[in-house]
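Quick one, tokens below:
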């Protein structure tokens, strides 16, 4: 249940801060033995993919020349 809930949350998050919070939750659950090594690894990989997608969507803001 935890695994499915977190995976859904990962897919729904839109900021890096939200994903960081989920990452902490995953590893806390792993430390408490609520998820297996493989489940934690799979969730961490999904987080990594989501982080990359968010980073790719961010564009740098430039200051116009002459300012």
């Amino acid at each position: 249940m935890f695994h499915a809930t977190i995976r859904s949350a990962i897919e729904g998050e839109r900021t890096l801060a939200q994903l960081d919070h989920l990452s902490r939750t995953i590893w806390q659950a792993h430390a408490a033995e609520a998820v297996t090594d493989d489940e934690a690894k799979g969730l961490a990989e999904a987080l990594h993919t989501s982080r990359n997608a968010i980073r790719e969507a961010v564009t740098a803001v430039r200051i116009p020349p002459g300012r």
